[in-house]
Amino acid sequence: QVQLVESGGGLVQAGGSLRLSCAASGSIFRTNSMGWYRQAPGKQRELVATIRSSGSTNYGDSVKGRFTISRDNVKNTVYLEMNSVKPEDTAVYYCNVQVVPRYGSAVGYWGKGTQVTVSS
Fold first, then answer.
1. End-to-end Cα distance, the chain
2. Each residue's pLDDT tens digit, 3-54
3. 50-54 long-range contacts, CB within 8 A, separation 24+
4. What is the DSSP string of 47-97?
5. What is the 3-state secondary structure (H, E, C) of 105-117?
6. How far is Cα 119 from Cα 89, in angstroms, rounded to an integer?
7. CB-based contacts of 84: which residues, under 8 Å, 6+ apart?
8. What integer pLDDT is reported at residue 103 of this predicted model?
9. What mean pLDDT, rounded, does the chain reach?
10. Distance, C-alpha 116 to centroid of its chain
């Protein structure tokens, strides 16, 4: 089994910064893609950013230039640095980690989500 623990959410003023973390633990041989998604009330879950084990990144259009994703492969942890946040960034943020077990195929896991609220 694999557990994902997210932290760092909270209330922040527009223009401010916030850092999210997601640590994966359990039966992990290695991780492939790690990423963040978000879901605002009444909207579909959308991509925020992903990062591959190689370090290559992909960002949603709405966060490009403001958010930075990074990872620590030793700690199996993915981070999201959020700068110049806007009220429209308000959402529940979920981490997703593609875990490769010692034997078998990769499996995707989701965290329980952490609330980010940006006040204007």
1. 40
2. 999 999 999 999 999 999 999 999 888 899 999 999 999 999 999 999 999 9
3. 50/96, 51/78
4. EEEEE-TT--EEE-GGGTTTEEEEEETTTTEEEEEE-S--GGG-EEEEEEE
5. CCEEEECCCEEEE
6. 10
7. 15, 17, 66
8. 87
9. 96
10. 12
